[in-house]
Design a protein that fits this description.
The complex is a heterodimer of chains A (about 550) and B (about 50). Chain A is mainly alpha-helical and about 550 residues long. Chain A has 22 helices and no strands. The radius of gyration of chain A is 24 Å and the shape is globular. Chain B is built from 1 helix and no strands. Classes of the chains: A mainly alpha (about 550), B mainly alpha (about 50). At the A-B interface, α5, α6, α10, α13 and α20 of A face α1 of B.
């Protein structure tokens, strides 16, 4: 990081907090604070919906995943466009007409108060934990770049986001999201362009794709029907559909964004805007990760992507063993580079990729030896994963002056936009679904605004605490999705009972929710079914059991 | 508690009278067609020999 990079990053951080505070001025009651006065236009809400979904994990995690595993993760988003259409036809009009602050309020109108209480509680539990992971991801970035402790990073990220959300509420969230999304889009195109420009001249973009293809990095559509196989086409289309229905239809962090739309039509358009753009955007991000993979064919990658672990390896491993590992790795890298160029040049003449694939396997084996040595040094027997460090390392070591600072700012923007929406929605759920019902129903505008701000601070602080523990939970992106999947599908099932049938009763919905969660827990515990399917299991279990219970109780 | 019928909504304003599959039908269809084309595009991207 050069002084120019630092300047870019500081300007972003100071600017976004100042803009957030400025844009959120004028709140006098909780309608303003939580729903931005219900006067936002579709494009602002649409960008906010997109910014809330795209977290720093998306940048750091999925680019790293594309580097190591290819583009299969894309299928998760295949369900999104269909989910948006379904929501526009079903839940969005119901929420809008009911004039609710939270999605769970609608369940009280349709069923009873305990169903609202339980679903809101589950949202706060799962989202409260997930937001900690969302905060943790950028701390990985700064731990690589600055050598700062993760604690310091968490306080900087969390504190600056809390500052403007606490002051300006949803208005600040939406307007800062608009700016942040513009920065993010710019950053995506910048990274993609730089990654292409840095490829060797005689290889080019097409040659890079050929190399990636030979190593399976372009494999996206896996038509396997196995439920335990991760990221299959069917898992994406069906499991992804249920995941997106749950996320955009039942998760307050998203529902609250489009409830701020000036009309029902504005809210619908904001979701459809995402339906068109989300998959192409994710495709670009993943393809950038793939291009970074090819780039490191011609630039020697580190043994270990995490600089702290790399330094520890160099300091504590027996020198002879480390030297042997490094020599094997260097030789394997040189062999892979030569094999890659041979294949790229000869592919049109029908050259086989086998030698190139063998070279890749040898490089992986050499790296595996380095990882084993590191684990030995650390006394750790668990699965080692430094995937999330790949892209940050690439940014700071390979991007031109000023660009690195900008892309780091993009990662901050991605993280802060998600955190902002989540702090705001968690505070809303606590305030509207609990405080205003059970503690002080009529506290007056001033009191309610003050308590809402305190709750924003409270949830921000809780997220910081969770973030400190998130490092031990494994690959960040999977952790976030797994947290969601345990509850998401079941909550979706309750909303489906509410919106799709008149036969469901309050008791059916309430006890059906428990049946759904129990089903997901059993499936997670005793089968190898991939977590993308948990949402399907939960939703279907709640819907079926809810209807059965309703029929039995009525009969 | 007697469940509220799913489709009984508060008083409708002008926006709420927009039929579910009326003016929005073209946009919904465009989304679904784009989705189909996207998946086909990805299949081609994956399948073509680069």
């Amino acid at each position: 990081m050069t002084p120019l990079d630092w300047s870019v990053l500081v300007v972003y951080l100071v600017g976004i907090v100042a803009f957030g505070v400025w844009s959120g001025r004028g709140n006098t009651k909780i309608d303003d604070f939580f729903l931005a006065g219900r006067e936002m236009r579709w494009w602002a809400v649409g960008l906010s919906v997109m910014a809330t979904q795209i977290s720093a994990i998306t940048f750091v995690g999925t680019t790293g995943q594309a580097y190591t595993d290819g583009m299969r993760f894309l299928v998760v988003y295949f369900g999104l466009p269909v989910a948006m259409v379904i929501l526009c036809v079903t839940l969005v009009p119901f929420f809008y007409r009911a004039g609710v602050f939270t999605a769970y309020q609608y369940l009280e109108q349709r069923f009873d108060s305990r169903t609202r209480t339980l679903t809101s509680l589950l949202f706060q539990l799962s989202r409260g934990l997930a937001v900690g992971v969302t905060l943790y991801a950028p701390s990985l970035v700064l731990s690589v770049i600055l050598g700062w402790s993760e604690q310091a990073t968490i306080l900087l990220m969390g504190g600056s986001t809390i500052a403007y959300v606490m002051y300006g509420g949803n208005k600040s969230v939406i307007w800062t999201d608009v700016v942040q999304m513009a920065i993010i889009w710019f950053g995506i195109f910048l990274c993609f362009g730089v990654a292409i420009a840095q490829l060797p001249e005689d290889l080019g973009f097409e040659g890079a794709l050929a190399l990636a293809q030979a190593q399976g990095r372009l494999d996206t559509l896996d038509t396997s029907t196995s439920l335990s196989q991760p990221y299959t086409l069917w898992g994406g289309l069906i499991g992804g559909l249920f995941l997106m229905l749950s996320y955009f239809g039942c998760d307050q962090s998203q529902v609250q964004r489009y409830l701020a739309g000036a009309t029902l039509g504005q809210s619908r358009l904001s979701l459809l805007f995402n339906a068109f753009l989300k998959v192409p955007m994710q495709f670009l991000i993943l393809l950038t990760g793939v291009l970074v993979f090819v780039f490191y064919h011609f630039e020697r990658p580190p043994l270990i992507w995490n600089e702290v672990d790399q330094a520890r390896l160099e300091a504590q491993a027996p020198p002879d063993r480390l030297r042997a590992v490094q020599e094997r790795f260097d030789a394997a890298h040189a062999a892979r580079e030569a094999a890659a160029l041979d294949y790229a040049r000869g592919r049109e003449a029908g050259a086989s990729p086998e030698a190139y694939r063998a070279a890749e396997r040898e490089l992986l084996a050499a790296r595996g030896e380095a990882v084993a040595l590191l684990q030995q040094v650390k006394g750790d027997t668990g699965r080692y994963n430094d995937t999330n460090y790949i892209f940050p390392k690439y940014i700071v070591s390979q991007l031109p002056k000023g660009f690195a600072g900008l892309v780091i700012a993009v990662i901050f923007a991605a993280a802060m936009s998600t955190l902002a929406g989540e702090f705001n929605s968690l505070a809303t759920a606590t305030m509207v679904d609990f405080y205003k019902r059970f503690v002080r129903p009529d506290g007056g505008d001033r009191h309610e605004l003050l308590v809402s701000r305190l709750m924003t601070v409270g949830w921000g602080g809780f997220a910081c605490l969770i973030a400190l523990e998130a490092g031990r939970l494994g690959s960040a992106i999977e952790v976030v999705n797994k947290f969601g999947s345990y509850f998401y599908g079941s909550i979706l099932g309750v909303f489906a009972l509410a919106a799709l049938t008149k036969r469901a009763t309050a008791a059916g919905a309430f006890w059906g929710l428990f049946a759904g969660m129990a089903s997901v827990a059993l499936v997670a515990q005793f089968t190898s079914i991939h977590f993308l399917w948990y949402n399907v299991v939960g939703a279907v279990a709640v819907f079926v059991s809810g209807l059965l219970i309703s029929a039995l109780r009525r009969g | 508690m007697e469940p509220m019928p799913a489709h009984r909504a508060p008083a409708a304003d002008e926006e709420e009278r927009v039929p579910l599959f009326g003016t929005w039908r073209a946009i919904y269809l465009a989304v679904l067609v784009t989705e189909l084309l996207t998946i086909l595009g990805v299949a081609v991207f994956q399948g073509v020999r680069w």
